[in-house]
Design goal:
Layout (H helix, E strand, L loop, with lengths): L2 E5 L2 E3 L5 E8 L6 E8 L6 E6 L6 E3 L7 E6 L4 E6 L8 E9 L10 E3 L3 E5 L2
Parallel strand pairs: 2-11
Antiparallel strand pairs: 1-3, 3-8, 4-5, 4-9, 5-6, 7-8, 9-10, 9-11
Length: 123
């Protein structure tokens, strides 16, 4: 089974920065695509950023393009989300997500989720 643990959330002023980190308990992290999602109160969970197995491709929600950067370190089994120029509307619980992409895995396509870390952007 896969466990994901997020860290780095907190309170920050508008225009500030935070870096979120997700640590994955997996044998080979390069077998997993990784994503960051977020969910604000009363809102649907939305995809913020995604990254492919070796970090060669990334994608972002339009609302965070140019401000957020997703990256990964497969040797350390981590994925990070650097958040700059934060806005109040970025306030949400941020969740780390990993998707099993190994063709020989019995859990191919399975999604794994962290418990989330709260980011509050307020003056």
């Amino acid at each position: 089974q896969v466990q994901l643990v997020e860290s780095g959330g907190g309170l920050v002023q508008p225009g500030g920065s935070l870096r979120l980190s997700c640590a994955a308990s997996v044998f080979t992290f390069s077998n997993y695509a990784a994503n960051w999602y977020r969910q604000a109160p009363g809102k649907e969970r939305e995809l913020v950023a995604g990254i492919t197995l070796f970090g060669s491709s990334t994608n972002y929600a339009d609302s965070v393009k140019g401000r957020f950067t997703i990256s990964r370190d497969n040797a350390k089994n981590t994925v990070t989300l650097q958040m700059n120029s934060l806005k109040p509307e970025d306030t949400a619980v941020y969740y780390c997500n990993a998707v099993d992409k190994s063709p020989i895995s019995a859990y191919y396509g399975q999604n794994y989720w962290g418990k989330g870390t709260l980011v509050t952007v307020s003056s």
